[in-house]
Amino acid sequence: MRAALQNYHARMQRVLDHIDRHLDDDLDLEALSSVAAYSKYHFHRQFTATFGLSVHRYIQLARMKRASYRLAYGDAQSVTDIAMDAGYEGPDAFARAFRQRFGQSPSSFRKSPDWEPWLSAFGPLDNARSKLMQKTYTPDDVTIRNVPATPVAIMEHRGDPATLGATLQRFIAWRRAAGLHPRISPTFNVWRSERRPASPADYSVDLCAGTGRPIEANGEQVKAGEIPGGRCAVLRVVGNTDNLEPAALYLYRDWLPESGEEARDFPIYCQRLSFVPEVPEHEAVADLFLPLK
């Protein structure tokens, strides 16, 4: 029974991976059922039963999420181009769908996103990707590295995680102005709290850009700091790096007690090696670091 369930999950995961890799293609039911190796008739019902939303709805949300990232974090594409990439015939249809889902026009969202309805709208998509089909990690996935100390510029986010998107926008704008593009300046997140603390106001994370230069705040609350060097357990996560909680739980709950190692007095953190919207979501890569004594 367990082997059959694992095979079923693997086939469904194959479909999710295929969708994420081919968002610009014609993802019809026949092609996707073939990827899953199920009949078209049964595949549609199985997908909906497994993920709580239809294949069509999943694809719509995946395309809309990519479009919203491009609006919020990039300025290279026009709204019309983003609309076409999201599968809409023109900007008017895209704007109507966008406003219905988020309560803002695409242009308004690009200038000043309201992140709370955004988070709510993509709950079903995130649930399908990360909660129902969680990746299973093993000790072979973890390496121990001696990492060098890295001086960083830090922008702190303190408060409700629903407002993190606004801090990310400010951080991206600041590092652009400072000439610290991710290609030359490594990107780190240091978690100072649980992902979901008892009170949302207690959520705390540091957004960091590696730099040895003097920090020019340019009107932002940015300070100098350091990612300390030393031994770390490192776990690489590929795709769906929005939610690193399952990987962090594996390191803390499973790997650490079995390894005989002891955690150092510095929070778990990640280095984002590639991230949305620079790459598609399925190509995002993050290394999760658990500092060790």
Describe the structure.
The chain is an alpha+beta fold. It is built from eleven helices and eight strands. The chain has helices spanning 2-21, 29-36, 40-51, 55-73, 79-85, 91-102, 106-111, 115-121, 123-131, 164-177, 245-259, and strands at residues 142-147, 150-158, 187-191, 204-210, 222-227, 230-238, 269-274, 285-291. Strands 1-6-8-7-3-4-2-5 form an eight-stranded antiparallel beta sheet, covered by helices on one side. Helix 5 (79-85) packs across helix 6 (91-102). The longest helix is centred in the N-terminal third of the chain and has 20 residues, at 2-21. It is globular. The termini are far apart. The mean pLDDT is 89.
Quick structural gist:
The protein has helices at 2-21, 29-36, 40-51, 55-73, 79-85, 91-102, 106-111, 115-121, 123-131, 164-177, 245-259; strands spanning 142-147, 150-158, 187-191, 204-210, 222-227, 230-238, 269-274, 285-291.
Shape designation = globular
Poorly predicted spans: none
Secondary structure tally: strands: 8
Number of continuous helical runs? 11
Gyration radius from CA atoms, angstroms = 20 Å
Helix content bin: 40-55%
Structural class: alpha+beta
Along the chain, the helix and strand elements come as: HHHHHHHHHEEHEEEEHEE
What key phrases describe this protein's structure?
single chain, 293 residues, alpha+beta, 11 helices
